[in-house]
Predict the structure.
Amino acid sequence: MSYNNILTQFDNGVTTITINRPTKLNALNKETIAELHEAFKAADNDSETKVIILTGSGEKAFVAGADISEFADFNVEEGADLAAKGQELLFDFVENLSTPVIAAVNGFALGGGLELAMSCHIRVASDNAKMGLPEVSLGVIPGYGGTQRLPQLVGKGRAMEMIMTAGMITAEQALNYGLVNHVVAHDQLLEFGMGIAAKIMKNSPKAIGKAIEVINAGFKTGVNGYVAEIEGFGYCFGTEDFKEGTTAFLEKRKAAFTGE
């Protein structure tokens, strides 16, 4: 499938999705959100894709925010609809994919860009990255899950400060806060992400997908994460990957997982 705003590339089990609007600092507009949904859906449905890496084109920005020109004149109902559809199509969709998603954050990740990175399962940042949720400086709040995911990752106090000051933090601060997993030189970012992907791909896709589901369950209102874990643990015993993994261990060989 061809896209206007993103690029996709498959290599050795990894699909890399690149947001490609460099003249707009890769800002998210409706079309880009729709294209990202389709690209993530296609990669998740592709049995050859074991890991997805998401990044932005150029050296300046991962995603510098949403395209404000699209919603500057919206009313209350239109604003709420914008947030609801965006979360459904992209942010919640990415968070709940069974295929692991690594955000390779190069440069600015602001507003919707940081919210997109936070919806990914793992975040790696270049040393020149800057992150923040500046929405209150526009008279609005984060609308793509930022008020919920940021406190989960960095704690309520730091999230309150980041959101209320509308300020940016450096990659090193993001690492100290637990907002990103690793910080590396810009020219090593994708290679480092590929290294994490290679480690993930040694393991059972079926178990990884179930682990993502169960970890997310623990952050959902009204869901008992421990019960979800027990059910997920039992589920794994009925998979071919479990049979292969335990047999390989007992036979002292490397497992050849099929994702079944």
About this structure: The chain has two domains: 6-200, 205-250. The radius of gyration is 19 Å. The mean pLDDT is 95. The chain is about 45% helix and 15% strand.
